[in-house]
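FORM 7B: Structural annotation worksheet

SECTION A. Query
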Amino acid sequence: MATAVETRQQQESVAGFDVQQFIHGNLHPALVRWAEQGLPVAQKRHEVLSGIYQSDRILLEASPGSGKSTSAPLLILEAVMQDNPDARVAITQPRRLATQSVAEYVGSQVGEEYVDYRFRNHPIRKDNARLHFTVEESLLNDLIADPMLQGYDAVMVDEVHERSITVDILVPLLKRAQELRARNGKRQLKVILASATLDAAALSAYFTGAQRIEVEGRAFPVTDHFAPEHI
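SECTION B. Predicted structure
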C-alpha cells in the first residue's frame, strides 16, 4: 500500500510539474533558458516573485521584449504552487491570434501537455494543463458562471491598457471574486494586471494595495540587408 508521500509524488508526476522544482530557489528549465537568453522578466525572477508573494494584486509594467507574456505566467505559477501544488493560472489576451500563438510558444518551451488555450468555439483543453491562455470574453463567461472563479489560483490580464469593454467589466469582477473569496474563507485569488504602458496611478487607486513591479525591456539587434538590384 502506497504511503501518503508516495501518493503525493505520484500525483506530482502525473501533473507534470515536480513541485520541488519550484521550491528552495530551483528554476524551471524554461525559466533558465529565458534568463540565459536575456529576457528581463526571467532575469528579475526574484523581484517578480517577491511582489507576488507580498500582495494578491499586482501591477506588472513590463516593456516590449521583456518576456512579459511568455515568462511571467510561469513565474506566477511558481508562486501559487507554493500554497497549492495543483494550482492553475489563467492568462487573458485581447485577441484570438495572440491567445493561440503565445500558448503554442509557451507550450513548446514548458511542455505542450501543460498549456492549453481557448477562444469562443475553439477550445483546446488538456487534462494536465496548468497554464490556460484565453480571450477575455471566455474568462468573463467563467466569472458569470462562478463569481469566485474557483477553478483558478491566479489570473493575469495581459495588455490591460487596451481598455476594451470586456476588460472594463472583467477587472471589477476579478476584484469582486477576491472579495467573495475573502468573505467565504477561500484561498485568495492572485490578480496580475500586465501591460507595457499601464496607467499605474489610476489602477493603484482602484486596486487598493496593489504591488507595482516594473521591468525594463530590451532592444533586439537589427541588420540591414540590401537587394543586389533595384526592385
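SECTION C. Observations
Residues 1-17 have pLDDT under 50 and may be disordered. The beta strands are 57-62, 89-93, 115-118, 131-135, 154-157, 190-195, 211-215.

SECTION D. Sign-off
Analyst initials: ____
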